[in-house]
Write a structure and sequence with these properties.
Blueprint lengths: L6 E2 L4 E7 L8 H15 L2 E7 L5 H8 L7 E6 L1 H12 L4 H4 L4 E5 L5 H9 L7 H14 L1 E2 L5 E4 L5 E4 L7 H8 L9 H12 L30
Parallel strand pairs: 2-3, 2-4, 4-5
Antiparallel strand pairs: 1-6, 7-8
Helix pairs in contact: 1-6, 2-3, 5-6, 7-8
Length: 229
């Protein structure tokens, strides 16, 4: 959109690719080798591939690694692995500089919400699977990047999380967590997970507080409790 400022990846470019071989239906590594690597080679983007072996492996990698040897970080997985990467970067002592490193998402998971959003805002038709992967890889090959907002959430236990899409609690979160064991089904895991959670519907109790719009305009209004109908 007009007014946005874009950076451009250098050429030649060296990318660290963080890949979860278990994401989605388990084809992320095969798809990377068959679809992504040839396109990146044509665009003069060299890759170092880091294949995760356990939960939080990517988190630890970007938190502790010297990232100066790479021009960009590429996540080949679903939204969950990018969540790990973002939160790992934010735990670094030099997080302000680390977060300036361009991030790219290539769809290899079950939902791929961020990749689908980027595909849409880039002006491409709504697509999925291999076509979505090709489109997102082409965006990476062009090398343009811009800033993206993050959401910060602190829990009552003292934990802090950063998100690029949104936070979920209650039923939707349970569907996501409970359907993990059906990853081999791809995106259909969410349908099965929803049906199972509906069958054993739980009751969630919580309290929501919010700041009114006036507080963002310089006011100091205290948080208000929500009112129901």
């Amino acid at each position: 959109p007009p007014g946005d400022s874009y950076g451009v990846l250098p050429r030649p470019c060296h990318a660290l690719v963080l890949l979860n071989p278990q994401s989605g239906s388990g084809r992320a590594l095969d798809d990377f080798q068959a679809v992504v690597q040839p396109m990146l080679a044509e665009a003069d983007i060299a890759t170092t591939v880091f294949v995760t072996e356990r939960p939080h492996h990517a988190h630890e990698k970007v938190r502790d690694e010297d990232l100066s040897q790479w021009d960009t970080l590429v996540v080949m997985s679903g939204d969950g692995l990018l969540f790990e990467v973002v939160n790992g970067l934010m735990e670094r002592p030099d997080w302000r500089e680390a977060m300036k490193k361009p991030l790219c998402i290539l769809p290899g998971g079950s939902g791929n919400a961020l990749a689908a959003s980027i595909n849409y805002y880039a002006g491409y038709d709504h697509v999925a699977k291999k076509k979505l992967l090709t489109n997102c890889t082409f965006i990476l090959c062009k090398g343009l990047y811009t800033q993206m907002d993050l959401v910060s959430l602190s829990t009552a236990s003292g934990k802090r999380f950063f998100s690029f899409l949104g936070f979920g609690w209650g039923f939707i979160s349970d569907v996501d967590i409970d359907s993990e064991k059906y990853r081999w089904l791809g995106s259909a895991r969410f349908t099965l997970g929803t049906l199972q959670c509906l069958a054993k519907l739980r009751v969630y109790q919580g309290r929501l507080s919010y700041l009114p719009v006036a507080a963002e305009q310089g006011g100091s209004a205290a948080p208000r409790e929500p009112r129901g109908p």
